[in-house]
Amino acid sequence: MDNKLLLAKNSLVANGFKVKIFSNRQEVKEALLKEVGLDESIAFGGSVTLNELGLYDEFKNRGNKIYWHWKADDRRAALDSAVNTDVYMTSTNALTLDGKLVNMDGTGNRVSSMIFGHKRVYVIAGRNKICKDYNEARERIRNVAAPLNAKRLNTNTPCRFTGKCNDCDSPDRMCKAEVVLHKNPTGTEIIIYIVDEDLGY
Ligand code: SF4
Predict the structure, then answer these.
(1) How far is 201 from 189, CA to CA, in rounded Å?
(2) Residue 39 beta carbon below 6 angstroms from any ligand 1 atom
(3) Which residues contact 193 (CB under 8 A, 6 or more apart)?
(4) Which of 35, 74, 153, 173 has the fewest Cβ atoms within 10 Å of its own Cβ atom?
(5) Which residues neighbour 78 within 8 Å (Cβ) at sequence distance 6 or greater?
(6) Which domains does the chain have, with CATH numbers?
(7) Mean per-residue pLDDT for 157-170?
(8) pLDDT band at residue 56 using 50, 70 and 90 as cut-offs
(9) 141: Cβ below 6 Å to ligand 1?
(10) Phi and psi of 18, rounded to 5°?
């Protein structure tokens, strides 16, 4: 296992987060399906990682109440219902070797739910999300994650065409709210599952 995963884990734990490392996506999937009760409601943040894991269908088919605006006919209603569920699941744009979670959002639902409103928040992150520090995390978000998301969403933003950020003024801009979790926020249990595979972007 890459030493980076252990370094990130130790720093995140020192900052109050609960952290586990998994060897692959199947292991993390099994753990999540075991830890979340059938009687718990779940919401998902926008996440290519979660999509790749296929967890939405697994939870839904076994009977959990689950909300994900990516799968809903009424996106707004799903976002509203997602605010107060027992469990929130998402990935993170970056996690750093000094133990921070760094995220950029267009709507803000994902970053606000990471901080407040749920009993437990699971953050599932592939090894590709690990960055040295805040500056590298910001670089990754602006010049790797956002351009790939721009292509996926077909946004009218310069990064979709150039693969680089130019701090745009587009109404489609995805980088409207930047949130850095320096420590685990009071009252929310954030559980970070780092997977020793590339997942999402
Ligand atoms: S600020 Fe604009 S150009 Fe830069 S990454 Fe975000 S959406 Fe793309």
Answers:
(1) 24
(2) no
(3) 19, 20, 21, 22, 28, 31, 32, 122, 123, 124, 125
(4) 74
(5) 67, 68, 69, 71, 72
(6) 3-195 (3.40.50.10420)
(7) 96
(8) very high
(9) no
(10) -95, 135
Q: Is 90 exceeded by the pLDDT of residue 147?
A: yes
Tell me the whole-structure pTM to 2 decimals.
0.96
Q: What angle do the packed helices 55-62 and 25-35 form, to 10 degrees? A: 30
CA angle 108, 197, 12 (to 5 degrees): 55
The amino acid present at 149, given as its one-letter code, is N
| In contact, 175 and 142? CB cutoff 8 Å | yes
146 lines ligand 1 (CB under 6 A): yes
Which atom of ligand 1 is the closest one to the Cα of 172? 7
Cα gap 168→163, rounded to integer Å: 13
Q: How far is CA 176 from CA 33, 67, 85, 129, in A?
A: 33, 23, 25, 20
Mean pLDDT confidence for 162-172? 96
The string of pLDDT tens digits covering residues 73-91 is 999 999 999 999 999 999 9
Q: What's the confidence (pLDDT) of residue 2?
A: 80
* Side chain identity, residue 56: Y
